[in-house]
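Re: export button greyed out
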Amino acid sequence: MHPTIDHYLLVAALLFAIGFFGVLLRRSILLIYMSLELMLNAVNIALIAFSRYNNSMDGSLFLFFTLTVAAAEVAVGLALIVALYRKKGGISVTDLTTLRSS
Amino acid sequence: MALFLLFGALAVVSGLAMVLSRDGVNAAMLMMVSFASTAALFVLLEAYFLAALQLLVYAGAIVVLFLFIIMLLNVKEGRIPAQKPWGLFVSFFSAALLLSGVAWLFMYFQHSGAVIGVEGPAPAESTVQAFSTAPKHFGYLLFSKYLLPMQCAGFLLLTAMVGVIHLRQKTTQRPLF
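Workaround output, generated via the alternate export path:
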């Protein structure tokens, strides 16, 4: 039995849900970032699967742009995390309560 | 099918272990395993060029950046307060809700007769480039149909570089936050 597009989409949906779970669960900003990368990666699987099974190049081309966005996001986000660490002394989301009405 | 099951299960299990792991370095390593299994799934989809790209950019550059920052900051996970049990329950419930929503969408499309897969209407051959693994076709499409998005992507990378350089400067006069 050959894997069909449904199998690939199932893996993509599972990975996306796991990434979403991680974003909600973790308190460390770094791990939230990693979970976000996992979600982007899951969408990449779905893009390639659609591209392959619809016999079109467009989905594969889109992977280039998601890769670019992911790389730029990681670079800027990690620089922001380092700046936050210098300022607050921690990278937990519980350090970011400036806007909370006490 | 066996290879698909192996790599799909590896991607999902290592992703789950990454989300649940207590240590940052372990999480980064598990993320690399997940990305490498995804690249293997791309190979199974016959997208060899994109699998190489995935390995280079994700499993290479991004994981190394994460490891670099984890080791630079040297944050002990114990200093970060753990999620409360109801928080675990709520996040698990939300993720399950998302997954069941996607599953319902699958069922809906399959039962309503709409097709999302192979059986879709074949696009006109003259306008759409058929699926190909050759880098030549990627380059051709990038510089013809997707010229403007490619320029925007390049500009985004330039913006990211300038932004990171600006963030790393000493901001004595103007506080950053």
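The CA atoms of residues 24 and 32 of chain A lie 8 Å apart. The button fix ships in the next patch.
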